[in-house]
Amino acid sequence: MVLKEYLETSKAKDFDQIVFWADDFHKTENDADKIDEILNKFNSLQGTEYKDGPNAWFLYTIFLKNSTTGESLAVSVMEDNWLWIHEDVLSITENKKDNITEMKYVRTEKYFKVTDGNIDYDYFATLMNSIDE
């Protein structure tokens, strides 16, 4: 599956919060325009999915979150044009017999090697620096 198709079919939706996470800090902001900009930037890339991750360093992770549901799409930007995408989606199961509703987050993870285009590391560094803490 190519990266764009995966992002377009992501089950986590309606993001209203960005969280940039690096080794020693994180920044959070609610900005719909920046969220759209980030999604467009990732959607412009083509990549090949790999079962296992690379031997590359993590630079930072960009979480796009829905503050109402807690669902998120996180993209860990790595060296050498690698991305690790993990998605947390809220799953609600109703057991009508016992009158129990179970809520839990289900995580899916995928690794992508960007094969057409390059990760714009400067763009993401500038964007991260533009977010108020």
Tell me what you see in this structure.
The longest helix is centred in the first third of the chain and has 12 residues, at 32-43. With 133 residues, this protein is an alpha+beta fold. A 7-stranded antiparallel β-sheet has the order 2-1-4-5-6-7-3, with helices on one face. The protein has one domain: Dna Ligase, domain 1 (2-Layer Sandwich), CATH 3.30.1490. It is globular, with a radius of gyration of 16 Å. Helix content is 21%, strand content 47%.
Blueprint of the fold:
Layout: H1 3-8, E1 17-22, E2 25-29, H2 32-43, E3 46-50, E4 58-65, E5 72-78, E6 82-95, E7 100-116, H3 121-130
Antiparallel strand pairs: 1-2, 1-4, 3-7, 4-5, 5-6, 6-7
The tally of domains stands at: 1
The chain-level structural class is alpha+beta
Please report the total strand number as a whole number. 7
Largest sheet: 7 strands, antiparallel
Distance between the termini: 35 Å
Output the helix-strand order. Answer: HEEHEEEEEH
Radius of gyration: 16 Å
Assigned CATH architecture: 2-Layer Sandwich
Strand content: over 45%
What form results from the Cα inertia axes? globular
Number of distinct helices:
3
CATH topology: Dna Ligase, domain 1
Please list the strands of the largest sheet in the order they lie side by side. Answer: 2-1-4-5-6-7-3
Query: Which CATH top level class fits?
Result: Alpha Beta
Low-confidence stretches: none
Q: Quick check: average pLDDT? A: 85
- Report the helical percentage: 10-25%
Supply database-style keywords.
alpha+beta, Dna Ligase, domain 1, 47% strand, globular
Summarize the structure in short:
This protein is of the alpha+beta class.
